[in-house]
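fyi for ur records
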Amino acid sequence: MNALARRLAAAALAAPLAACASPVPPAAPSVPSASLPVGSAASPDEMAMEVARLVNEHRARIGCPALAWDALAGRAAQAHTDDMARRGYFSHTSPEGQNVGDRLRAAGASWRAVGENIAQGQPTAQVVVRGWLASAGHRENIENCTYTRQGVGYRDRYWTHVFYTPMPGTAMSGSRSFELLRARQSTRP
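which gave:
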């Protein structure tokens, strides 16, 4: 077992990913270095955007189109992340029984396909994406080329990544291209 696989196996024990996943394979795929400086104190928004960037980089390598950043998916993801952190649970389903489809619908999105990855305990976007890519169920969501939109929530080492494809004819009013959002963020003082 190589050093990377040993570190990932240890991380999987110390910081569990969502229970829906298959066991971690012996070797993890590589994830490019994050663009955030190592050791930097990134804001929750920066952490979420970094997950989106890393996922889109991976999707490009396997031939899937980039996911557009979607404000509705971002709100649903952040609300679920905040709820899990505030109430101390870790599940795709809230204590009231709401799932990702319910949360996305409540945020105002109409969808025909939806998926969600959650994680708890990972300190950086790079570590959480690497963990998801090492898990068959999470990797399936990331590599599902039919998804077109994404939103990410982060708080206190809780992570939620929502993927979806809108119903045909749904306007892009709640979405912005990832590149535009990233460009706007990089121009902030």
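DSSP finds seven helices and five strands in the chain. thats all i got for now
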